[in-house]
Amino acid sequence: MASVFGHSIVAYTVSKIFDSKHSRLLIFIAIVSAILPDLDVISFNFGIPYEHPLGHRGFSHSILFAFLWAFLITFIFGKYRKKMWFLIIFLSTVSHGILDAMTSGGRGVGFLIPFNNNRFFFPFREIKVSPIGIDKFFSEWGFQVILSEIKYIIIPCIIVLVILHLIRKKGK
Ligand SMILES: [Zn+2]
Prior knowledge:
Largest sheet: none
Strand content: under 5%
Low-confidence stretches: none
Number of helices: 7
Mean pLDDT: 92
Helix content: 55-70%
Shape: globular
Structural class: mainly alpha
Bound molecules: zinc ion
Distance between the termini: 39 Å
């Protein structure tokens, strides 16, 4: 994983880009969706190995999972703005795997599970992989993670948000 902060700000940015009404509920669920795939770490407790399709960075990090999850959430909450809900929840969920595929550690991401069990990384892997567990996060390792995320996730997101803000302000 990238850190919870890294995943959250990407979901927040995605929501701001596509939902000009800034629905708080939508932003909240988008952030939850961007963190959700890492619940798969419980698979370790069941003795499921990392490489297994249901292991860490497996099915919950796949494009199909993001699609099904977005479909479910849109069905429950979407009401009159279904396309927008679907788009934002899908992109937020899939953004999790995309960030993970740019991290420096772990195994790759199972984007194509269940059709193909290969694990993928992007050629760009500058985001330091985040430790699992709070105690390890507050360490030198955690510091390196935050530094890499500020550079490659947080600053780019803030730039996008500022540009959006300026464009929308001008449009008013
Ligand atoms: Zn992950």
